[in-house]
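[Meeting: bench + compute handoff]

Bench side (C.D.) handed over the final construct sequence. Compute side (W.E.) agreed to return the predicted structure before the next meeting so the bench team could plan truncations. Sequence as handed over:
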Amino acid sequence: METSNLLFIAPQLISPLSEAGDGAERKFNIYGLRDGWVWAQREWSKATIDTGIGNPAKATAEKGKAFLSDLTEKIGTFLFELADADLSDLYE
């Protein structure tokens, strides 16, 4: 997702995808962290070989454009609704 977003926003910052790693990940040794029900920030230099998790090979600018368009609409709708909300009456 991140690679697609950047291919749309700032493609000059992305190296050719042929140079990207496969996104292999080193899992945590602790079960709760590895299983995902406990969260901790990863130390990227130890969690990955190339500081990326997930294979960017299928990234495209078109996917980035679609995602960012949807995201912008959702955030904009939320902010408009929040600005118009009665903060003393937030529940149905």
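W.E. noted at the follow-up: The longest helix spans residues 61-84. C.D. will use this when planning the next construct.
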